[in-house]
Amino acid sequence: MVGRALGIIPHDLLRVENAVSPRTEHVTTVIITMTRKCNDPVSSEPLEPGLKLAVTLRHLATGSTYADLMYAFRVARNSISLFVPKVCEAIYLAYKDEVMPDEITTEDWMRIASDFERIWNLPHACGALDGKHIRIRKPPNSGSLFFNYKHFFSTVMMALVDADYKFIWLSVGSYGSASDSQIFRDSELRPMLEDGTLDLPPPSLFQMVKQIFLIFLLAMTHFLSDHG
């Protein structure tokens, strides 16, 4: 391995190498399949899947540039640029069914609502919805479509999460210039909420206090306003 040959083994890589659970083995198997052509052109030895995973996790966790990762892991920058997207896809394919199931039942929504009330003292909440700007380089010929109100170019990730911050629904790629209400209005989530596709629990009564009412009122105003 490159790290061992140089006597330098990053802590991230050690943790990955020592993680031998079936879950990790499944991820590395997917990585091997998807990144066969992403090896270091300078070396005749193929890059180990554990190394590719460690580099990708460091990039995702810290935002380190490919140039920084090149020096930290002794892997060519062009190789990193090739395998990081593939490893991200491999992680998604390995865990998507567990983390983001295709279908959520009424019982699942009830459990989510129960968690919101237990953890956050917020009854009858089936998710928290918000958008996050992700900084990008200006795409060619895009004008001001990706230029946001914070004065930088971005694409928007809008997500619905449960009480433990786990994704229930996710949409990535909206224009940075769009507001949260515009993105929600044009998303696949809105018609699913309106036509009952999501199988949300039926309405029921609860003791409402002024503070909670204001929270829901503000949320509704934010996402349903034309100028949100």
From TrEMBL:
Predominant location: nucleus
Compartment(s) of residence: Nucleus
Required co-factors: a divalent metal cation
Keywords (A to Z) from UniProt: Hydrolase, Metal-binding, Nuclease, Nucleus
GO MF annotations in UniProt: hydrolase activity; metal ion binding; nuclease activity
Keyword Cytoplasm: no
Domain DDE Tnp4: start-end pairs: 129-194
Pfam families: DDE_Tnp_4
GO cellular component terms, semicolon-separated: nucleus
Keyword Flavoprotein among UniProt keywords: no
Family to which this protein belongs: Belongs to the HARBI1 family.
PANTHER family named among the record's database cross-references: NUCLEASE HARBI1-LIKE PROTEIN (PTHR22930:SF269), PTHR22930
Name of the molecule in the record: DDE Tnp4 domain-containing protein
Organism: Mytilus galloprovincialis
